[in-house]
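User: Hey, quick favor. My workstation is busy. Could you predict this chain's structure for me?
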Amino acid sequence: MTPRPRRRWVLAAALMAATAASGMLLLGPAPPKRITLATGQPGGVYDAFGAQYRHRLEHVGLHITTVGSSGSLDNLARLLRGDVDVAFVQSGTYPFTLDPASRLRGIAAIYFEPVWVFHRLGPGIDSIASFAGRRIAIGPAASGTEAVATMLLREHGIDSTRADLRRLSNVEARAQLERGALDVLFVVTSFRDPLVTSLLATPDVQLHGFRREAAYARNFPALTPLRLPEGLLDLRRNLPSRDTMLLAPAALLACRDDLHPRVVEQILKAAKAIHASGSLMDPPRQFPTLEGVDLPVHDAAQVYLTQGESFLSRTLPYSLLRWTGLLRLLVLSAIVYIPLVRILPEVAGWSVERRLSQLYGVLRQAERDLARARTPSELRAALAALDSLCRDAEPLCDRIPAARQRDVYHWRMHVAFVRSNASARLGSLEQKTPGAA
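Assistant: No problem, here it is.
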């Protein structure tokens, strides 16, 4: 390869690299290889689902670190601090979180998790107001259970001055209720939680059913009325023993507004695989959904759940999705710059040829003027005009690149040739016409 073509390819490569670097700054960082997911209490449903998400996402190349927590409010606080990237949270808890910059985003609702209220107060209890003065477990501090239980109790006039409110883990609350050290237990969890079937099967422990479910739903939009049919959870033991109306927030996936769109897509693909088939309490193909998400929705989740999965996400593995932005820039820059570096020399060459044509046009016109001269005085005038034209042409010669200056010197040789012929003719005319000088 000659030096000139080599310089062209070096220029093209440099332009492509500069474009790629600029594009990466404008497009932002590539999708991460690793994220952190906040789940919930050890052994709980969030913890179990966290393991499923970790398995599916690591299979496509997105590594997940799961961390336990007290629950939804704790998870939202961890998101705001930047301790985690994604978290399971409960609908209805976002209003209890201070987010002045509106950095938190919802990805999707993924299943219903009812409010289960178990008590040892006998079958005649038909209202939460009857829990006044009792020992009540309202979930761990900073949990979704604490938020919902406090909200419902306050609506019925019960606070810490009118009842013994205890912030206990699910395991500890269950143990205290079973041995009679507790009167009421609130817990927000999936029907899959072993705590639910265990307490349903415990003698002297009743599951509270909510009457006036339409009024509750109007007052608390995050709570959806769900009918729990008799025997649904265990046909053999007939659990529950009667139809019961429950109120259910939705379990949500939440993140910050800076979570990469490609990560959101992968999380939603995993959510579809895990939750779309439905369950005993969740209709098939209802989840994941934007319905019930009470945080501002992440843009990528909005697009995915309303318009479908992107072509790149459907066809490329995550390991390649991380580089699609850079690959697009490189392809586009190659399409632009490679032809450009091939065309530019041609354009420059055409410009040089045009200038040389102008120089030879000037010389050809001067040669015609010299040929038309019939007397020594006319010939001397034409030679003076040739000299003047040559001086005027110097700026044009200077604009011709150094690599083509040999053509300028060829032109000057031709000027000298024309001038030499004209000078010889002038000498001949002066000899034939004495006194003409």
